[in-house]
Amino acid sequence: MVNTNIRLTLPVVCFVWQIAMIILFGVFIRYDEESDTHWVETKAHDNITSDIENDFYFRYPSFQDVHVMIFVGFGFLMTFLKRYSFGAVGFNFLVASFGLQWALLMQGWFHSLDPQTGKIFIGVESLINADFCVAGCLIAYGAVLGKVSPVQLLVMTLFGVTLFAVEEYIILNLLHARDAGGSMVIHTFGGYYGLTISWVLYRPNLNQSKRMQGSVYHSDIFAMIGTLFLWMFWPSFNSAITDHGDGQHRAAINTYLCLASTVLTTVAISSLSQKTGKLDMVHIQNSTLAGGVALGTAAEFMISPYGALIVGFFCGIISTMGYIFISPFLEKTLKIQDTCGIHNLHAMPGVIGGIVGAITAAAASESVYGKQGLINTFDFTGDFKDRTVLTQGGYQAAGMCVSIVFGVVGGAIVGSILRLPIWGDPADENCFDDEVYWEVKEEHQESIPPILEYNNHMIHKQQDL
Amino acid sequence: MVNTNIRLTLPVVCFVWQIAMIILFGVFIRYDEESDTHWVETKAHDNITSDIENDFYFRYPSFQDVHVMIFVGFGFLMTFLKRYSFGAVGFNFLVASFGLQWALLMQGWFHSLDPQTGKIFIGVESLINADFCVAGCLIAYGAVLGKVSPVQLLVMTLFGVTLFAVEEYIILNLLHARDAGGSMVIHTFGGYYGLTISWVLYRPNLNQSKRMQGSVYHSDIFAMIGTLFLWMFWPSFNSAITDHGDGQHRAAINTYLCLASTVLTTVAISSLSQKTGKLDMVHIQNSTLAGGVALGTAAEFMISPYGALIVGFFCGIISTMGYIFISPFLEKTLKIQDTCGIHNLHAMPGVIGGIVGAITAAAASESVYGKQGLINTFDFTGDFKDRTVLTQGGYQAAGMCVSIVFGVVGGAIVGSILRLPIWGDPADENCFDDEVYWEVKEEHQESIPPILEYNNHMIHKQQDL
Amino acid sequence: MVNTNIRLTLPVVCFVWQIAMIILFGVFIRYDEESDTHWVETKAHDNITSDIENDFYFRYPSFQDVHVMIFVGFGFLMTFLKRYSFGAVGFNFLVASFGLQWALLMQGWFHSLDPQTGKIFIGVESLINADFCVAGCLIAYGAVLGKVSPVQLLVMTLFGVTLFAVEEYIILNLLHARDAGGSMVIHTFGGYYGLTISWVLYRPNLNQSKRMQGSVYHSDIFAMIGTLFLWMFWPSFNSAITDHGDGQHRAAINTYLCLASTVLTTVAISSLSQKTGKLDMVHIQNSTLAGGVALGTAAEFMISPYGALIVGFFCGIISTMGYIFISPFLEKTLKIQDTCGIHNLHAMPGVIGGIVGAITAAAASESVYGKQGLINTFDFTGDFKDRTVLTQGGYQAAGMCVSIVFGVVGGAIVGSILRLPIWGDPADENCFDDEVYWEVKEEHQESIPPILEYNNHMIHKQQDL
């Protein structure tokens, strides 16, 4: 018998790590100047006349949308399994709450450690970045949903956030690639990280829990809550940290259009895949989102409205075909069990997004962007002020590769750690079952309608006869 | 047997129309100056000192609220049927995604085609207007919910958006009526459009699917998600495209108050309608929203806080009475089968809203609005700078009539098209059933509690004896 | 037999109170200058150059988040009971809609009645405050959930809002305590108000409705919708009415961090409390929110990021332990039946929040806040310009006591009124049952899977033999 008792490990991990967070925050984290009471002086110094120019007002609405995507979006998207909704929403809640704290530290050390004071100064943009970082780990959770313990998820998140901060530093700072919505940094990395972990944790006898796989009617509707909040708020996701003004404006428009296009082609392919043209909820719940992933890099570029539609068009097709053809292949041939199909929703569209980003960057021109617009969009300043768009395209492509390498190598290492027999993961026949880690009330008595209870009674009487 | 196979039609329509969208967007749609990289120059030219004056920051939070209303609000409001929740949320998702693209084109051609370049320049306000336009079609969907195929819905949306753009052009541009929240343009038009289509598609034997009508406990709670998101975000809906500053501020306050008042009178009438004073979920889900509809035109006016409460007061009464008395009458006498009761939630309150708008416009005065305030609120500039408030009231009423005419005549024509036997609509006995267009997993085995499975087993044994 | 017929009382209360609201609004309530058409002149007078400086843009996004917390957050959090979800969401909707109107009047009379005109001028900040005031009453609803009639809830809200406005006036205006997120004013008051009412209404035979207590699988997922929207938007709640600029910015950051920390310790204690380390949904749904409550007072202070984490750390522990140890004690020994455990989610964390606020205020210093920052944060202006931080700490503690006294004494009085046998409250055996006040459709026929229907048929045949 497998031991799934986590009464020792889970509380210990939660307490120790949370205490570590408190200590590290005490040492390193401070308010940035726009969230500090000294802003009244900073403001005067910077000739800011109105409080509305505080970055809070540029970014807070987008931040809240992103926050909803992380907790309701990812959480509910994974409730589709008939008896793993507690785990889906609840563990998502747990690992995201830990992950965002750790992300503030890791991203702070790599991106914004003040050399003079040795402190990390945080503001609303840091919170968005922390949520983004967590998204990478939640994507990975999708691949192993139902097959791991909450302790394993926390370990996955600890290493996931760490790896994320490093690859992000390499891609955004060293290579100076642009990736505002994280096609590469978030989705490609998170996708391959999760898939590789799932591959290392391969369970040959997973069909022993076949009865718990798949959805029921109501669980599919719950999952649509996740889908829709992700879909609706994706324009905020891709525009949350882009440049003030036209940058945020354009990224939101592009993502809005791209996602609309994805819905139509997803429906088309889903309908084509069934004999009588019926639609499959799995496709509607997932592939409709692929366009948002694929525009993560290019959303802030002048990809033009019809360009956004084209990206969405192909992503809907590719992602839905992924669910139909590639997922079964991955499972049978490559031994990758991908519960939520993150390969089709994040990994593939993420790679497409990286490529789209590289091409559109390489094709950027002063005639389209304007002289200053080009400099602003690609941040051709400081060390990078002489970079050409063609070079930029090359670095974008290099960034793409970095994210894949980090995902695969990192996933292999972390997967190996997670194979240790100390984490309390479920037996093959108990996967996808909330009973393992949750107090689930018995519903038998309540859910039997009176008329049936009567029948039961009659049956027993008959048996007695 | 009726043929509900849509494996050919649905994919073809989705692909062809989406490709048409891409081509038309390529030809016509461009970023407006506030979402273009050239904004850095435009800004300097217009003496704008801070990025925060980009229209994005005035309207994006409202846009996202409206977006939630369209996809989660309308989608979940229609999940109340016991076995049509996939169709409610899923087809809503599909037609809205197509509709918003087509709306950007249609509204662009009519309202903002640049004569010099022949292009349509879009920004965040265009996205809101596209969502608004889609709302009209989703309202119409409510009347035919469960009785049409997704292909029919797409056709309804294609023509609905087209008609919408034309009536909107006549009402807002030619008549110069004000209708920020769309009492006339959105709700009256959408309501009568849907009702007339439903009248043309009358199914005399619809009671053959009686077992599928009505709700179950959980489906009513899902529907409340839709209700609440519509109710909470309606202040954003009515203020999304009103004037910057006090216009948006006032529209939000008025709608907030009006909707609160509606809830109390809805509850009162619902309770009065039952012998023991019990409440009916249908009323709570729908009539509580009537106030938002009815304030669509007047929300930006100086209707005063108590005026908003009065509008809400009567709308709650009238809408709930509609569900109790008028809907059965419409079905029996006028042969209009209105699945969601859009007559009570959109058509009637929309007409009330148009009337309230006409009266409050006609009663506007410089003493209340201030000289400049009056000009700003009713946009008495350019060709209309000599218009009096009384004339304005008349044009508002004329706008009301235009929206009804477009709804009824347009609905009759489109309804006739939808009667063609090529669209794969369900048979009378299969209406309101997701099985027709969706892969619905069999739940029998899973949902039977173990004790019953045992009984079944026993029964079969007994039968064998 | 208990009479639960509310066909007379509920409509009468709704109609009469709503008409009273209309009259009082007509007499007292007007648009404030930023939502009035005269703003065009006011603005010119105040040298405001851009519409974006209208308070609407500082506060509307936060307002909408708070609005979602009130209607979806509180409403769905209480849907956890297996058959009281209509009552949870529906009555929450009703009382909040009445309460916010009454709150605008009560808070207006006490806080912003213009002495010259005798009018109350409202804007977006008033709407937020009205929602806050309603929150106090909805907290109280949590204690009596399932045991009272909607008429009783409306009476509770009428008095609750009244008491709230008075205690708020004493605490914020007379004592000049700071309480932006309402640890004292909202949560402590609301918590003790509800608990005392529940104590007065003690039902010794409540176990007669034991079959209706507790949750089922799906109701627990619905409740998580409430939990997550409360959790995600709490940073908006605590920052909604703080100072423009750094005040709002800092309050949001602090609350975000604090709540993340609470999740980890809640999970830890929940897991510790079960033999095999399984988690309990009751804890996850409720205790994860305690950190937001406890930071209500101090969120706008320079409590520093690690300080916020520490508050969250202890609140998760205390609140979860409350569910495990204190709630059963309260019920058995003190005869307080607390359906939702508001003592653990609101009352205790509210008191902690008051204490944290008093300590952090007393410990504030110019070196941390800056000279002007200190004055701004604690509003040491006018009559209070000579107050020291130590004195401020004392007044904060005094405010804490005022809120408890108002809760307990007010609750005792209102509870006595609610014991009158005229309100139509349910019998002990019908508590927690939607059937009492709602039309609930019979699901027996529909929910029986076909195979079982067949069996029923067979059984009946057998019986006939």
Can you describe what's shown?
The structure is a homotrimer of 465-residue chains. With 465 residues, chain A is mostly helical. Chain A has a single domain, classed as Ammonium transporter AmtB like domains (Ammonium transporter fold, Orthogonal Bundle), CATH 1.10.3430.10. Chain A contains 18 helices and two strands. Chain A has helices at residues 9-28, 39-45, 55-77, 85-112, 124-144, 150-174, 183-200, 217-239, 246-272, 281-286, 290-294, 305-332, 342-362, 366-369, 371-378, 389-418, 444-447, 450-464; strands at residues 29-31, 120-122. A two-stranded parallel sheet of chain A has the order 1-2. In chain A, helix 9 (246-272) crosses helix 12. The longest helix of chain A is centred in the C-terminal third of the chain and has 30 residues, at 389-418. The two termini of chain A are 41 Å apart. Residues 444-465 of chain A have low confidence and may be disordered. At the A-B interface, helix 3, helix 8, helix 9, helix 12 and helix 15 of A face helix 1, strand 1, helix 2, helix 3 and helix 4 of B. Chains A, B, C: It comes from Oncorhynchus tshawytscha. Chains A, B, C: Belongs to the ammonium transporter (TC 2.A.49) family. Rh subfamily. Chains A, B, C: Pfam families: Ammonium_transp. Chains A, B, C: One of its GO terms (biological process) is ammonium homeostasis. Chains A, B, C: The chain crosses the membrane at residues 12-31, 63-81, 88-108, 120-141, 153-172, 184-202, 214-233, 253-272, 284-303, 309-330, 342-364, 397-418.
